Amino acid sequence: MIYVPSRMGQLNRRALLRQLQKLGVASRADLAKALGMSQPTAGKIVDELLELEVLEEVDMPATNQRETEAVVGENALRGRPGRQLRLNQSAAQILGIQLGVNETTVAGLSLGVPDRDEWHFTFPTGTSSSSSAKNWEQKLRASAEKIAGEKLLGVVLSVPGVVDESANRVLFSPNIHWTENADLAAIAKRIWNVPVLLVQEERALALGYQLTNPGSDDFLLVDFGEGVGGAIIVDGRPLAGTLPISGELGHTPVLGNHRKCGCGAVGCIETLVSTGGLLESFTAASRRKTKSWAELNAHISTNGIKPWLAQTLDAAAVAIASALNILGLRRVIITGSLTELPAAVMQHLATNIKAGSMWAKFGSVECLSAPRHRAAGLVAVGIDRLVVPEAAPKKMLAGKSFR
Ligand SMILES: [Zn+2]
User: Fold this and answer.
1) pTM value?
2) Considering the domain 94-205+375-397, what is its CATH architecture?
């Protein structure tokens, strides 16, 4: 018999998984209580998810005797068994792929929330030639041999640009145009033969930040790297418009900037504040041979924020403050290359974001730097759309029988 949970069952499942993501480890009783479900209802969902290997039971860690005794003692007091539940961390169930401008990285991910991004396999993405899709497929296939895929629920693929996630297509990619004409989902499907989901890369970062920082439900995330992009979480959900374009801060024009951007326009902020843009300005300002990122880092440590850098950061701050003012948000999370530079850079950026945002005049505007949690974001998408899909689960549950 194929198990197809009801709509209510789906909602309960999702709620239970979200709760477990938040708690990390919990007993059946903890989950029932936190969700306001009866113990039999929560217990039934837990049993189903254990059968599907989405959850696993864990004994108290034997290495930490004192803590074990404390928890067991507490459990005994409340009259519940000592076995706890968590999202299955024993096997890779989602294949995460991060297609970046320069590099593509691949990792087998379990459903447990990863503390930090760790990628198992890396190869150059390939940016120019028309045969790039074919090259990419070959290199991806080579990585498949190194990552066991027996238990994969699906592949979740992070891509830059304007991505129609529901149609699994890249519509526009200023820095990797070949992905616009390539069916990336079909390529991954040919290799692993499991469902494939495309996720816009900044959205993955925002979902990853949310998952690793429970309680963060309203923020703008801005990532700096080879490009500049953003993603917006409002009321705990990604901001969804009718068109798959949002958070495109990088393509806001800066007056007086004449650099050409990969999007076809002239003057985009991305051409100044991306890693390549910063190095171009640094090289021009020092009137010497091409400068490296390490040299830029050292230069800022020694000399502080020079006018050319201040102007670029001010322009980025204007774009970010505008976004905050329009969205009514007061928290910005900054990830990526700018957070790797001396702290003066983030300080300068934060000061100017605050100067330009209305919320700063009433309450507080928070501007935090954070590590990239893209793998966690891919797991979040996988749990939502592969483990508990919106539509009736088809292939993935086929063959699983329930009593
Ligand atoms: Zn642009």
Assistant:
1) 0.84
2) 2-Layer Sandwich (3.30)
